[in-house]
From TrEMBL:
Residues 187-283 form the 3-hydroxyacyl-CoA dehydrogenase C-terminal domain. Belongs to the 3-hydroxyacyl-CoA dehydrogenase family. Keywords: Oxidoreductase. It holds the Pfam family 3HCDH_N. Pathway: Lipid metabolism; butanoate metabolism. The lineage of its organism: Bacteria, Bacillati, Actinomycetota, Actinomycetes, Kitasatosporales. The keyword Oxidoreductase applies. InterPro entries: 3-OHacyl-CoA_DH (IPR022694), 3-OHacyl-CoA_DH_NAD-bd (IPR006176), 3HC_DH_C (IPR006108), 6-PGluconate_DH-like_C_sf (IPR008927), 6PGD_dom2 (IPR013328), NAD(P)-bd_dom_sf (IPR036291). This is 3-hydroxybutyryl-CoA dehydrogenase. The keyword Oxidoreductase applies. Residues 10-184 form the 3-hydroxyacyl-CoA dehydrogenase NAD binding domain.
Length: 288
């Protein structure tokens, strides 16, 4: 039985784009968060951006009116996460780095604490090989910005236990999320559909068929895509997208999923999207 489900705090490992967004979501719902990273500078920037995101979330009506926000603690030590009721891994989409971190987390947190990986497409069965208690591991694919997008994709690995699934779903309900549970597979559902679409949109631009703006306008106006695939790519982070596409190509054996040259050009230049101020669009200034 998962014993710590009533804990008032969670731990988030990784203070990058998704770690910050998930943290803002939890804080806005009154949940205390311990945010762990390896860099003081990253944590300082994260704290400032999370404050901005919470203001944005409040303006957008994303948080319950009158709810007292949770308390944010930032730390360089995973040992400070041992009292958390749920632990979320939210580092970059690199299978070896995720596996190494989750092995460390698994050695530290007590038995009975659900461990969530925020992977966008690495099979849970693969990551489960690195943890001591694979029955307590599940995938939750939060979309960015996590504090605004209401639905999440929940991935049940082959070894994920009933207690862990119940705990994870209960936690997500507390965060105000609607959930869809899917089976484990490379890319799951959302990444398997979205990331190749973005890749193909970038190829269309590279071939000169249409501009970035035209592709997004057509996808929005004709097919109802909320922002267009290339503006969405900038929000995801082009480096994260390229990593996810490579992983998808490797694990499915489908070479058409390899990131296209235009996408890789932008990554090599450091034009990674909104977080660097420029990607497919120019945002005018670097966003922390």
């Amino acid at each position: 039985m998962l014993a710590k489900l009533q804990s008032d705090s969670i731990a988030v490992f990784g203070a990058g784009v998704m770690g910050r967004s998930i943290t803002a979501l939890a804080l806005g719902r009154g949940v205390d968060v311990v945010l762990v990273d390896v860099s003081d500078d990253v944590l300082r920037d994260a704290r400032a951006e999370i404050t901005q995101q919470m203001r944005h979330g409040q303006l957008m009506g994303a948080f319950p009116a009158g709810r007292t926000p949770g308390t944010l603690t930032t730390t360089l030590s995973g040992e400070d996460a041992t009292d958390a009721g749920v632990v979320i891994e939210a580092i970059t989409e690199d299978a070896s780095l995720k596996a190494r971190l989750m092995a460390e987390i698994s050695r530290t947190i007590p038995a009975g604490v659900p461990l969530i990986t925020n992977t966008s497409g690495i099979p849970i069965a693969e990551l489960a090989k690195s943890v001591r208690r694979p029955a307590e591991l599940a995938g939750v694919h939060f979309m960015n910005p996590a504090y605004l997008i209401e639905m999440v994709e929940v991935v049940r690995g082959p070894q994920t236990g009933d207690d862990a699934m119940a705990a994870v779903l209960s936690f997500l309900e507390r965060l105000g999320k609607k959930t869809v549970v899917v089976r484990d597979a490379p890319g799951f559902v959302t990444s398997r559909l979205l990331h190749p679409m973005i890749n193909e949109a970038a190829r269309i631009v590279a071939e000169g068929t249409a501009s970035v703006e035209s592709v997004d306008r057509l996808m929005h106006g004709c097919l109802g895509h909320p922002t267009g695939p290339l503006r969405t790519a900038d929000l995801i982070g082009l480096d994260n997208l390229a990593d996810a596409l490579r992983l998808l190509a490797e694990r499915t054996g489908n070479s058409t999923f390899e990131p296209c040259e235009l996408l890789m050009e932008k990554v090599r230049r450091g034009d990674l999207g909104r977080k660097t101020g420029r990607g497919f669009y120019d945002y005018g200034e670097v966003l922390s």
